[in-house]
Write a structure and sequence with these properties.
8 strands; 137 residues; 25% strand; alpha+beta; 5-stranded antiparallel beta sheet; single chain; 2 helices; elongated; 3-stranded antiparallel beta sheet
């Protein structure tokens, strides 16, 4: 039996909104936490990404102290949910995109990545990976 909207928790309302967003925007890979949830009028608790298989997962909010596990010259690694991380890279050139694609393939071959490279129209690429450790701080 389906619950009426007024009986759903805040979390369930958010997931309902995110699923609707991705259904209405089939090419989108990210649902920003800056969006207003039409079901409850509040900002989302965090950003969501959709992988090439259609799986949706939530990024840890930036106000969480340990949300960034590492930073490099071209990107950073953030926590997504409890058991995975997401490597995020800003791509400014075709050379960097090719490098990111090669690295993503290696990550898949080594078994540390869960998805191929997810390319966003905004110039960012994402790859969902296993969380292989704990933050140092």
């Amino acid at each position: 039996m389906v619950k009426p909207l007024q009986e759903l928790s805040e979390h369930d309302l958010e997931l309902l909104f995110v699923q609707k967003f991705f259904k209405e925007h089939p090419q989108a890979v990210k649902c920003s936490r800056k969006l207003i949830n039409s079901y409850n009028g509040k900002n989302l608790a965090g950003s969501y990404l959709r992988d090439p298989n259609g799986n949706i997962f939530q990024m840890v909010r930036s106000d969480d102290v340990n949300y960034i596990l590492g930073k490099g010259a071209y990107g950073r690694v953030k926590i997504a949910e409890k058991t995975t991380t997401v490597k995020i890279q800003d791509i400014q050139s075709e050379t960097l995109l090719n490098r990111a694609k090669n690295e993503a393939t290696i990550n898949l071959d080594l078994g540390v990545a869960l998805t191929p490279l997810i390319i966003n129209h905004s110039g960012k690429v994402y790859q969902r990976m296993l969380n292989l450790g704990e933050p140092l701080s």
